[in-house]
Amino acid sequence: MRLQERLSDHFALRDPHKAMLVGIRELAPEITARTAEIEAARRIPPDLVERLRSIGIFRMFVPRSEGGLELDFPAGLEVIKALARLDGSIGWIAVVAGASSLFVAASPAELYKRIYQDGPDTAICGSSQPGGTAERVSGGYRVKGRWPFASGCTHADWIGGFCIVTENGKPIPGPQGKPLLRVVALPARDWDVEDTWHAAGLKGTGSHHVTLRETLVPEANFFDLEAAPRQSGPLYQALRQWLPLLHGAFSVGLAEGMVDDLLALAHTGRQQLYAAVPMRESETFQYELGRISADLGAAQGFHEVQVAGHWRHAQSGTLNNEDLVIEGARSATWLATTCVGIADACFALAGSSAVYDTSPLQRRLRDIHVAAQHAHAQQRQYVDVGKLALRRSAEDAA
């Protein structure tokens, strides 16, 4: 029996969400033991990718009609948080797996069938930066470009990239006068991967550049994200509203892991130089830990409320709303900032032992700072949040 068939039978017999969380707990000791290997390789080792595939991370948001799990969105975010809590790079790959499934749900039926022709555990990645051009020609497009931050490209089966559509070498106007963008999706074997991922954190994500050099691509390999939903169900009626919430789940999971590591260090009985008592007996340590715990609880609560609100809209068919994009951006930005603060405080409390490569605290610190550089977490998001608050207050006063 093929792996895909065995996995389908496995999930059919069990609650898929609970089965995934159990699988993550069983895999946790191996992930923890191999974090240095993951960083050194700058990718997730192939055997661990297969273990994650067997847990179901590549199928969690794939429709049941394609053999996927089609988890409720809050349940899928629990899976991402659980993995980010263990390791930042693996948590990030889980975000990519979930987001990519939702991206390609906008593709035409023929392309969608090709992507999942070998089963629902197809690994997809891509870059949302418009790093390429697609010149209109007879029968399709002539594509060329170089796309950054293609996380997971070292184990991907399919890769996608945003292209500026051109005609006679000039960009074609799209909505609001901006250049028209389309997504090109091709099997991973058709792309070149440039070894560029030498980064401060999230080292194991393999977020290299990917390139296409003057490639003739049929129309059938393109799709538009602004097209009407092609899949039924609450998961697939919109995309941009989900993306900041995926980032928020990662931030919270990584912060939870940081606190776990600080507590583990305290429970070793460590006593810092010149300290009168061990860390866990120090009132200074206890005070700071209490403040960190409050910040973490606030982050967890805010994210849960935001996710629940978005999911209610998805279930009622009202998710495709620009205000919800801004609300999600607000939560992602605040969560990233707050969780960076939690990580910084944990690292400082840990003292000099945290500076060594062997300390998980320094790795998580680097990971969360790099994640906070993502576009979904940038402080400029607050401009739109402020505009929304002003508009709503004016509407309330009218």
From TrEMBL:
Q: Does the keyword Oxidoreductase apply?
A: yes
Ranges for domain Acyl-CoA dehydrogenase/oxidase N-terminal: 26-96
Q: Which domain of life is it from?
A: Bacteria
Q: Does the keyword Cell cycle apply?
A: no
The molecular function terms in GO held by this entry are: acyl-CoA dehydrogenase activity; flavin adenine dinucleotide binding
Q: Which UniProt keywords apply?
A: Oxidoreductase
- Where's the Acyl-CoA dehydrogenase C-terminal domain? 245-378
Record's InterPro entries?
A: Acyl-CoA_dehydrogenase-like (IPR052904), Acyl-CoA_DH_C (IPR013107), Acyl-CoA_Oxase/DH_mid-dom_sf (IPR046373), AcylCo_DH-like_C (IPR036250), AcylCoA_DH/ox_N (IPR013786), AcylCoA_DH/ox_N_sf (IPR037069), AcylCoA_DH/oxidase_NM_dom_sf (IPR009100)
Q: What is this protein called?
A: Alkylation response protein AidB-like acyl-CoA dehydrogenase
Instruction: Name the species this protein comes from.
Output: Bradyrhizobium sacchari
